[in-house]
Amino acid sequence: MSVPKTNKEFERRFITAEEFRFDEDKNMIVGYAARFNVWSEPICGCFLEKIKRGAFSKTIKEHDIRALINHDPNLILARTVNSTLRLEEDNKGLAYEADLPDTSYARDLKESIKRGDISQNSFGFQTVQDKWEMKEGKELDERTLIEVKLFDISPVTFPAYPQTDVKIRTLMNNIGIDYDALGIAITRAGHGLDVTDMDKNIIQTAIAVLESYLPNETPLVEEHAETVNEPSQEQITLYQQKKRLVGIMTHMEM
């Protein structure tokens, strides 16, 4: 079996906060940005993922990592270079402490955490080394993150991936596309594996369904005449998925 190609793109994952709280006496937030050896929920409908202990050991020693709110670089809370952010791997996961600045957005964050309005953490990273176990049929593939380059940890209002995944899954299923089967086919194609004729057929069928649903290309323009019907967000999302699938098929046929 071919070895999947490591994903060098920026990725984000989230964790429902465990021991995520505001320490009133020390004016800091403490919690876990990631947990080790715990399988995730299905990611993009394609695979399950877990993080191996030690995945962050190198990056937290070598890189200047930030604590942000909602991954927004304009809302910085702390950073490792000046020790206002402290990161440590323990048996459970990647633990952190972040000393909060005296800013309006930090004060707002404290109240939101104390009220329970914000109760999840996320981290942004790039994969350095991972391991894939590719499954047969409709069983989800398994990915283990062995080493990552960490960019930031963030308390978040909404974890980005689950909402996006649910939205796309719903839209696809509503027009007759098996989103889970499509996700597995995309995973094989995207990680350099030998795609099967069935994988190609699933992707081609999905493109055909999307083309029938979107007979004309959605006009993704910022300026247009008043007589042009502006596309709905649903149409834009499905058009983006169609464009992605066409690109995958083109790459497979090269």
Sheet/helix structural class: alpha+beta
Helix content: 25-40%
Describe the biggest sheet? 6 strands, mixed
Counting structural domains, the number is 2
Which value, in Å, is the CA radius of gyration? Answer: 21 Å
What ranges have pLDDT less than 50 throughout 5 or more consecutive residues? Answer: 1-5, 218-228
Shape: elongated
Instruction: List the secondary-structure elements in sequence, H or E.
Output: EEEEHEEEEHEEHHHH
- Name the average pLDDT: 81
From the N-terminal CA to the C-terminal CA, the straight-line distance is: 21 Å
Query: Which strand-content bin applies to the residues?
Result: 25-35%
The total of helices stands at 6
Strand tally, please?
A: 10
What features would you describe in this structure?
32% of the residues lie in helices and 30% in strands. The chain is of the alpha+beta class. The chain has 2 domains: 10-157, no CATH class; 175-253. It starts with 9 loop residues before the first strand and ends with a helix. Mean pLDDT is 81; it is low at 1-5 and 218-228.
Record the SSE blueprint.
Layout: E1 10-16, E2 21-23, E3 28-35, E4 47-51, H1 59-62, E5 66-69, E6 72-79, E7 85-89, E8 93-99, H2 104-115, E9 120-133, E10 141-156, H3 160-174, H4 179-190, H5 197-213, H6 233-253
Parallel strand pairs: 4-10, 5-10
Antiparallel strand pairs: 1-9, 2-3, 3-8, 5-6, 7-8, 9-10
Helix pairs in contact: 4-5, 5-6
